[in-house]
Amino acid sequence: LLFLSETGGKDRRSGLILTIPLCLEQTSMDELSVTLDYLLSIPSEKCKARGFTVIVDGRKSQWNVVKTVVLMLQNVVPAEVSLVCVVKPDEFWDKKVTHFCFWKEKDRLGFEVILVSANKLTRYIEPCQLTEDFGGTLTYDHMDWLNKRLVFEKFTKESTSLLDELALINNGSDKGTQQERERSIDLNFLPSVDPETVLQTGHELLSELQQRRFNGSDGGVSWSPMDDELLAQPQVMKLLDSLREQYTRYQEVCRQRSKRTQLEEIQQKVMQVVNWLEGPGSEQLRTQWGIGDSIRASQALQQKHEEIESQHSEWFAVYVELNQQIAALLNAGDEEDLVELKALQQQLSDVCYRQASQLEFRQNLLQAALEFHSVAQDLSQQLDGLLGMLCVDVAPADGASIQQTLKLLEEKLKSVDLGLQGLREKGQSLLDQISNQASWAYGKDVTIENKENVDHIQGVMEDMQLRKQRCEDMVDVRRLKMLQMVQLFKCEEDAAQAVEWLSELLDALLKTHIRLGDDAQETKVLLEKHRKFVDVAQSTYDYGRQLLQATVVLCQSLRCTSRSSGDTLPRLNRVWKQFTVTSEERVHRLETAVAFHSTAEKILQECPEQPEAFNEMEQFDEIEAVGKSLLDRLTVPVVYPDGSEQYFGSPSDMASAAEHIREKMKLVSLKKQQLKQPEATTPES
């Protein structure tokens, strides 16, 4: 039965030839009937109208089987069969044929039955329409025909089923409401077979059919036009056209569905991002309102904020990806989705930018708080250092160290002023940012939280202001005390300098003020200079006394004991007493010298013609006494109250002054002798 086939050959009436090869094995009539039904369903009605010639090849079968098959044809295809050619063995059926004459049963059977040998079939059918098995030249490969028929049947079955499925899917996509379309597509979205595979199979089948029709078979004999009907080339083309049409619609449905699915996925992801940012993300920011009360607290809040930013970064990355996908869909230019896509993009961008702005605002606020606390801590350390410096008692060695300390104190105070100014600027900037915090509170009342932050900032600034004011007051007191100490050291130094100056005046008086003058006029000039010299010394002494009195007052004000004024006053008094004694001695000597020179000059200037002026010799005696007294003083040292002695000038200086006096005394003595001689000669004459 596997070889039961339509070979493609035709009888002289152009009817199709149906070959039924029988074999020695038992033949199932049911299977034969089904096979015949199938084969007879292949030709078109036009072909069927021309009738069939059936060749029953009984050469390898028994007569009863052949007879059964012929009788079965009466029941299966009586109208389509016009001739049945039973190919008999050469000698085997000769005696049995007489028992049943098919030609007598023609009217009952409905067709003519001919018993014929294989070599005599050509009497009824052209050799070119018979296969080689029956002595013909028709090229026919039953297995090739069977394989192609199986391919065709598979293609027909799959394509028909696929067309139904695609039509159902495509028609479902054309329904009215969006929900109906989506429900229909969801139920029948995936075909049972791959359309591409079915189309490829159909194209390959059609291509092979067309190629064999126009190029001929391998044997060189032209392919029978019957193949177009047997293999249904027009049906393949029609199925392919329908498949292409439905598949094109199906691809559009898939594209729309894919786009809708992508849009729904984007919308779902957008809502996930929006819901998280407006939900947990915003709640995280709502709970983080403090700014900390120290550097460490602000740094801890910054670390917490960085963790929040890290969580937001993951969602912002999703936002970037979604924005790119939306932009790609917008560039595709589907008008029906533009509005929805733009609305999604705008919603996503608004939420993300708002949340990013809130994160940036919070980061800037914490950074400003950290800077504020840093400046506050630095200022606090500066105030502590300044206060520590002020709490230490000042015990400088001299005025220069006091000036250095005072300069350092002023620099520290200036640094504190700059630090407080910087703290106020940072604090005001932080307060301005806090005042804008309500803009991202999402309706939450942050007055209480802001008030705590504002109170803390203002409290820190007020505390620093008070500490700075206290330090300024202490600096004022310390500055006054240090200026008094500077004045004290200055007074002590100036008083010691006055003592030195007075000592230098005393030394100059003893060493350089030794001349007594050569005459009365010069001596008077020396005496006048000496009085001015004494006035200078008196001023120096008075200046030193005033400085020492000021030192006493400053020491009482500073409640301290001067280290130098204790011996400066005795030194000043001692030097002043020595100077006074020396000055008095100098005055006495100059006054004696004036008297001596005046008297001597008067005597020496008297004319000899007036002897009556020298009548009294007492003047000569007086001048001699004055001269001797002056000479004696030149040899006597100045004795100070403490018993110490000091000479004017060097011995040679004193000797020179004494020699000048002696010479003048000699002149006076000579004058006296001259005056005495006239008195002695007058009586004699």
TrEMBL record:
Protein's UniProt keywords contain Transferase: no
Keyword tags:
Repeat
Which InterPro entries does the entry mention? CRAL-TRIO_dom, Spectrin_SESTD1
Record's signal peptide: none
Q: Where is the CRAL-TRIO domain?
A: 1-142
Task: Tell me the superkingdom of the source.
Answer: Eukaryota
Q: Provide the GO MF annotations for this entry.
A: phosphatidylinositol-3,4-bisphosphate binding; phosphatidylinositol-3,5-bisphosphate binding; phosphatidylinositol-3-phosphate binding; phosphatidylinositol-4,5-bisphosphate binding; phosphatidylinositol-4-phosphate binding; phosphatidylinositol-5-phosphate binding
- Matching PANTHER family, A to Z? SEC14 DOMAIN AND SPECTRIN REPEAT-CONTAINING PROTEIN 1
- Protein name in the entry: SESD1 protein
The record lists the organism as: Dasyornis broadbenti
UniProt gene name: Sestd1
